[in-house]
Design goal:
By secondary structure, the protein is an alpha/beta fold. It has a domain at about 15-45 and about 90-105 and about 120-210. Helices cover about 35% and strands about 25% of the residues. An eight-stranded mixed β-sheet has the order 1-7-8-6-5-2-3-4, with helices on both faces. Helix 6 (about 135-150) links the parallel strand 5 and strand 6.
């Protein structure tokens, strides 16, 4: 897996000039880690449901439990929350620092993912879907650690690479929601050090999960 060549002109369509060099540096770091841990690479998934089955077993959405927390909910992924709703009893809490769209039987809380430790260990499942790549590395590792602290059972983190965030559609989204700027995928070695299992999914995406 080699580092793709992103021209400065291409990146400048999506990033401020002062951010381009840092984005390239982070991507090169991430790709070097991918090459170092190539044994972790697996084929992609057709859906998030398959991803959940892979990480936690075929009966994950049947056995469920009590309490589920979704971090960085935003306005997307409601279909996944619907599936979790059938498996997990309340509390069902969706948090974000900006707009939140969640099923009516979810409690929505405007807060930073770094503050989830205030909940205590009250969730059987905690997840953060395609949000980490919009956070700084310090915040990524802080939240990943606190996810384990508030989960009684399982944690799930998924991230998408830079290629997924380039293009006109994402540019429009970034212009509309400034918080969506891409800051790089997490350091997989730091996630492994926290006790997460990690796979590098085809298409340069990270899947990390933790089972208590």
């Amino acid at each position: 897996m080699s580092f793709p060549i992103y021209t400065r002109e291409h990146l400048l369509k999506n990033f401020k000039e002062e951010d381009v060099d840092s984005v390239i540096a982070i991507e090169k770091r991430n790709y070097s880690l991918f090459e170092k841990h190539s044994n972790l690479c697996i084929d992609g998934f057709k859906s998030h449901m398959e991803l959940l089955d892979y990480a936690f077993g075929k009966n994950f959405l049947k056995n469920g439990g009590g309490g589920v927390l979704d971090i960085g909910t935003g306005s997307a992924g409601v279909f996944l929350l619907e599936a979790l709703s059938k498996a997990f009893l309340p509390p069902r809490i969706a948090i974000d620092v900006f707009e939140i769209s969640a099923p009516r039987y979810w409690q929505t809380v405007v807060m930073n993912g770094k503050d989830i430790d205030r909940f205590g260990k009250m969730f059987d499942h905690v997840q953060c879907i395609e949000t980490f790549e919009h956070l700084t590395e310090n915040d990524q590792i802080d939240i990943a650690s606190k996810m384990i602290a508030v989960s009684r059972n399982t944690c799930l983190i998924t991230c998408c690479g830079l290629g997924h965030h380039l293009g006109e559609l994402n540019k429009q989204s970034v212009e509309r929601n400034k918080f969506l700027n891409y800051k790089g995928q997490p350091n997989i070695e730091l996630l492994l050090g926290l006790g997460y299992r990690v796979n590098l999914i085809e298409g340069y995406q990270i899947l990390a999960w933790h089972i208590a």
